């Protein structure tokens, strides 16, 4: 067996920074329950392209579930209890997601993490996410847990200043990333997704970020 196969089957947590942990394949054990839970969420709140405050259409399409959802429009970025498309509350956050995020956070050293918001990003081949900080949540003391599904991505892991150098970290189907503490406000982004078809997810990448937003 070649080394990369061994890595897949004996995936160990990787400490990317003091408070950033990559858990390779952590979501795979519960992939089908997770996808079963996502289906009704995305039926009730389909992916849409939001406008940036500058009036540009975001390349990433997104949706949310949970008590709060991240929204962007001409008046800025914020968390909202209602879906601006349906005018209704966001779909409930599936328990399988809350529990998976809580276990991942605990494994990375953040005990007692209970998400109240899940931002769901949808990438087609060619879609990228430019360098930014996540700073719309109430309390930066809570970590964020990210679940990557589908086509592989390269994420850019930067520093606390936009101009800091970035590291390129591959993220694969089923990988879970937890970051908090002093890493919570690092700049980060995603390089354009390479063309491809994922055997389970098709021609897309989906990223779930579980947050304590309120
Ligand atoms: C945070 N999503 O939704 S998540 C976002 O893959 C977002 O869709 C990306 O950024 C995505 O706000 C990335 C993983 C991630 C990676 C590195 C980080 C989040 C990070 C470094 C510092 C802070
Ligand atoms: Fe982000």
UniProtKB/TrEMBL annotation:
Residues 114-214 form the Fe2OG dioxygenase domain. InterPro entries: Alkb (IPR004574), AlkB-like (IPR027450), AlkB-like_sf (IPR037151), Oxoglu/Fe-dep_dioxygenase_dom (IPR005123). Keywords: Dioxygenase, Iron, Metal-binding, Oxidoreductase. The keyword Iron applies. GO terms for molecular function: broad specificity oxidative DNA demethylase activity. It holds the Pfam family 2OG-FeII_Oxy_2. It is an enzyme of class 1 (oxidoreductase). Its cofactor is Fe(2+). SUPFAM superfamilies: Clavaminate synthase-like (SSF51197). The keyword Membrane does not apply. Its EC number is 1.14.11.33. PANTHER family: ALKYLATED DNA REPAIR PROTEIN ALKB-RELATED, NUCLEIC ACID DIOXYGENASE ALKBH1. This is DNA oxidative demethylase AlkB. It comes from Pseudomonas maumuensis.
């Amino acid at each position: 067996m070649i080394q990369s196969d061994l890595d897949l089957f004996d995936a160990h947590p990787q400490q990317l920074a003091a408070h950033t942990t990559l858990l390779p394949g952590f979501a795979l054990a519960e992939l089908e329950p997770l996808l079963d839970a996502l289906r009704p969420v995305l039926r009730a709140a389909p992916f849409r392209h939001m406008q940036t405050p500058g009036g540009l259409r975001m390349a990433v399409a997104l949706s949310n579930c949970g008590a709060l959802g991240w929204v962007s429009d001409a008046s800025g970025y914020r968390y909202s209890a209602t879906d601006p498309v349906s005018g209704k509350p966001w779909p409930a956050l599936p328990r399988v997601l809350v529990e998976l995020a809580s276990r991942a956070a605990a494994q990375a050293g953040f005990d007692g993490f209970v998400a109240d918001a899940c931002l769901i990003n949808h990438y087609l081949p060619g879609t990228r996410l430019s360098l930014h900080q996540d700073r719309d949540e109430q309390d930066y003391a809570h970590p964020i847990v990210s679940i990557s599904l589908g086509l592989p991505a390269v994420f850019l892991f930067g520093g606390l200043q936009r101009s800091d150098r970035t590291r390129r970290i591959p993220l694969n189907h089923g990988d879970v990333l937890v970051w908090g503490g002093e890493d919570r406000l690092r700049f980060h982004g995603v390089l354009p997704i390479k063309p491809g078809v994922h055997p389970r997810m098709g021609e897309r990448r989906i990223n779930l970020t579980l947050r304590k937003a309120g």
